cytokinin dehydrogenase
Amino acid sequence: SYFTFSKVLSLLWLSCIVVTQALTQPWSALQAPKELAIRLIRDPVSLSIASTDFGHIIHDNPSAIFAPSSISDISNLIQFSNSLPIPFTIAPRGQAHSVHGQAMTNDGVVVNMTELSRFRNGDGIVIVADEKKPYADVGGEQIWIDVLHASVEHGLTPLSWTDYLFLSVGGTLSNAGISGQAFRFGPQISNVYELDVVTGKGDLVTCSAEKNSELFNAVLGGLGQFGIITRARIALGPAPTRVKWLRLLYNDFSAFSGDQEHLISFNETNSADYVEGLLLLNQPPLDLSFYPESDQPRIASLVTQNAIVYVLELVKYYDNTSQDHVDEDVKVLTQGLNFVQTFMFEKDVTYEEFLNRVHSEEVALRAQGLWDVPHPWLNLFVPASRIFDFDDRVFKGIILKQNISAGLVLVYPTNRTKWDDKMSAVTPNEDVFYVVSILHATGFDKLEEFQAQNQQILQFCADAGIGIKQYLPQNKTRMQWMEQFGPKWKIFQERKAQFDPNNILSPGQGIFN
Ligand code: FAD
């Protein structure tokens, strides 16, 4: 009848208005209850800081920055978002050292994790020097350099690191946290006993491999998708005091990678403590600052002759008890290695100086105005079985031939057996895989050129079926994410539905938003 027809029409009209209002009136800070609203910051300077990251490639406009004064504040913010017809997104921001907007959000709220330090009142890092199982209880917002300082005061240290220590604990545990120690101890995510997490539903949950293990495994390497890490219990071991830090130069990739793989296969007692590698390319800038000045000319000419020189980086820790035999240990480790004769260089520095080595580069780059520039980085895990193809077609091919100044290129193998496949982090499906980090820094004028080169590298890997996985991935499409996670995609999706059903958290990763 006409009456029913007009009722249906008006109902339709009404629902159109409601939907349109919801879509055209995004959540506003004014809607938040007072206790949350007072923690939302919207001044232009803060908004502009939160709209970019270390990459300076992506720009997003958050509607507010949240300055939590407690863990409950974070939980209340998430619960408030979930209560709305259209929840707003929430991006925890550690140090924003991501390069592709991973800690950002458009229109949503950025949680400034560093604000939690104030509420901790100096208790953000608690060292428990238990004889059998020492650990550090650390706020998710804390940075690794502070964890280092606090633990060495007790003669202890975390076992697995990143190369750079001004990164937040929550940020690196959301990725994996890798460096030259990972071949022995696994990534940082393999060295966590327990976590406190505020899930995407706003629940504060303590989890570990035994308790609430599904959440624990989801969050570690979970790209911020399942919850906000507010505390991590990190495994510690005895801290050395000094290190022998060696660089060995190779003009042959096969000798270089063969020696690297040999070194990471040692059993624990007589193993190296750190193994990495990097390229010296016949392209500016050629950074030889590690080497004695008197040797720099002959190193430069080795690079000119070979176009590409591979540098194996090897470290042996020591302390008072082992200083008498550390030179002998180093000799045993380097015996039979196939570097170019007479191209072995050694430094002897404190443990903390070594771990904090990238910071001195940061200081120098900042002084030259070269730190806050675009960073079109590409980080890949390459299966060991295909590393020769990669060397041939990417290092000697794309990078060397295009000659657009590669910046720093790291290349080193690591052992997959030290990763836990139950966790969200993904690796290639081989026992040994290489970490390849192509760390460009550039002006805005060259950004597109570098991004095009990265695309070309990814395209080559896809065409040649190399079976890479991206680390700190920058995928755009659902298809790319499905490929990245491979067989783990299904469980990743299921965990998302379980812990963050409204797709609120870390939208900048671009996985579910
Ligand atoms: P952010 O960039 O702030 O966040 C990263 C992601 O985690 C975002 O999605 C964010 O929403 C989420 N997140 C942040 N905090 C939390 C939390 N508490 N709980 C849940 N999710 C959270 N990585 C390595 O593995 N090895 C290296 O050697 C290494 N070297 C680096 C050197 C430099 C100079 C730089 C800039 C980066 C380096 N990285 C390295 C990469 C670094 O580990 C990642 O970028 C990491 O995310 C940085 O931590 P962050 O605190 O800046 O995280």
